[in-house]
Amino acid sequence: MVCNSCGRNINNENANFCEYCGASVREGSNYYQSEPQNASAQVPPHTPMQAIEVGNNEKPVSFLNWLGTHFIKLIPFVGGLVYFVMLLIWSFDSNTAESKRNWARAKLVYMLVMFLIAMVFVIMIIMMFNDPVFKETFWESFNKEMELYEDLYKNYSY
C-alpha cells in the first residue's frame, strides 16, 4: 500500500494512518495504489517524533534566578527604579529566556495599568478638593472642631 500524501510504501495493509507522515490512508477510494498521486513529489526524510516537538528547547529559568529577580525590589532607596529598568531590559533583550521575557512584558503592562488607575484617583481627589461645596463643608467642619478644642483648652488651662 502507498500513502497518497507522502508517497511512501506502507507495509501494514490494515493501517489507517501513514506511519511516516500521519496522513489517513483510508480517505478516498484509491488507497491501494501502487504509485503515489503526484509522482514528481519527493519523499520527505523520516524524522523521529521527538524532533517534531512544538516549541523551543530552552532551559527553564531557575529558582534562584526568579528569587533574585524579586529581591531586586528590596534594594534600599533605588530598588524600585532598578527593578523597573531591569523589567525594560528583560522585556526587549533577545538573550533573555522567553518565559522571563513574557513575564517582564506582562509586568510592565500591569504596572502601566496600575499607574493610570492611580492617576485617575489623584485627579479625582484634586477635583474634589477644588469643589466649592467640599471647601465650604470642610472649612465649616474644621472651624467647629477648632472652636471645640479652643473651649477645651480654655477650660483646662494651667
Structure description:
By secondary structure, this protein is mostly helical. It is built from four helices and no strands. The longest helix has 33 residues, at 98-130.
Keywords:
158 residues; mainly alpha; 2 domains; 51% helix; 0% strand
| Largest β sheet strand count, sense and barrel closure | none
Query: What oligomeric state best describes the polypeptide chains here?
Result: single chain
Q: Percent of residues in beta strands?
A: under 5%
Number of strands: 0
Number of helices: 4
Report the order of strands and helices.
HHHH
Helix content: 40-55%
The averaged pLDDT comes out at: 81
Structural class, by secondary structure, is mainly alpha
- Return residue spans where pLDDT drops below 50 for at least 5 consecutive residues: 29-36, 50-54
Integer count of domains: 2
